[in-house]
Amino acid sequence: MYDFAYEKPGSLADAVKLLSADPDAKALAGGQTFIPVLKQRLNRPSTVVDLAKLGLTGITVSGDKVTIAAMTTHATIAASPEIKAKIPGLQHQASLIGDEAVRHRGTIGGSLANNDPAACYPSAVLALNGTIKTDRRSIPADEFFQGMFTTALEPGEIITSVELPVPQKSAYEKFRNPASRYAIVGVFVAKFASGVRLAITGAGQGGVFRHAEFEKALSANFAPEAIAGIATPAEGLNGDIHASPEYRAHLIGVVSKRAVAKAA
Predict the structure, then answer these.
(1) Per-residue pLDDT at 231 exceeds 90
(2) Beta strand spans in the chain (E)
(3) CATH class of 5-50
(4) Which of 14, 55, 67, 101 lies deepest, with the highest CB count within 10 Å?
(5) Residue 19 has pLDDT above 90, yes or no
(6) What's 59-263's CATH class?
């Protein structure tokens, strides 16, 4: 690691002030991506601002909305009876992230802010048509995710919570890397009275994305066979030692059908 100053503010206002005053300062949430990056000397922040004391934890259900505070851990979401009852796809998704140690440290806000192209939560928030709340505004999910490791967040802006509408049905499935368990292809599907939203993580070069053709077919008939004949182009998909773009295109269809079958 390079040398850096360390701050652990006790209020959101103080954290925002520290991050806004120094363009080279970085926020620390769960640290499951940030700490390895520091160890590998891939980032050189002047100051690390630890968000652990801001009180941004907890899950609230109000009518047809579920609000999850930004520093809530994956383990808390996976163990939540409220999440299991209202959005079972999200509860299952959280239980699949990393291993037990990662789930007890990693946070939903940190994952969304980092927007790793293979992260699980972006697919849930996008499919559920969620709203990301920050210290200064509310950002719809369709506007928040802007590309690989890129979001609509401005310098110094801190995610405080994410608000998720409760769907009629939901499910998440992923084809996992056997070692690190990240999503080679992950699919979250959510059925609402207004239609179906389906988001894919792990496959796109630009990060998480929605599949418009699948959504149209599933809105008319929410069943795996509704998308059986729809091919996903390999163009624009990731290719690496684990899966070619063509294989990921095939997996998108397979994993999507599994997700729909589970939800239905």
Answers:
(1) yes
(2) 5-7, 25-28, 47-50, 59-62, 65-69, 131-134, 138-140, 145-147, 150-151, 159-165, 169-176, 183-192, 195-201, 209-210
(3) alpha beta
(4) 67
(5) yes
(6) alpha beta
